[in-house]
Write the structure tokens for this entry.
Amino acid sequence: MRLLTLVLVALSLWTLSGFVGQVLTSAQMDRSQAELRAQNDQIATENAMLATQVAEAQSPAYAERILREQRGYAREGDTVILPSFPQVTPTAAQPASTPAPTVAPAPNWRRWFEALFPPRTP
């Protein structure tokens, strides 16, 4: 009788563990399904947005706007205004007055000597 009880308890525990595993797997699959649906909705929104952009890009108005903005084309009947820049003639530079002579700096060795051994003042 004890052996039969032990076998039934073991079988019950094995069945319970299988059931719990199935419940956990089902919950994980539900979460995964919700994430995939959210991604699917986001992709559908992006596709709709891209479809409207494609439709706009294929329209003649879009091509005309691009030609006007980037290529500088004009429609028949438009008035085109071209800027004119005045011609600038270079003038001769005025000779500068002669600069005042500059005093030559002390030789480098003397500056080092004075920096390392400053003159003593009494």
User: Anything to note?
Assistant: The helical segments are 2-57, 60-71, 108-116. The chain has three helices and no strands. The mean pLDDT is 88.
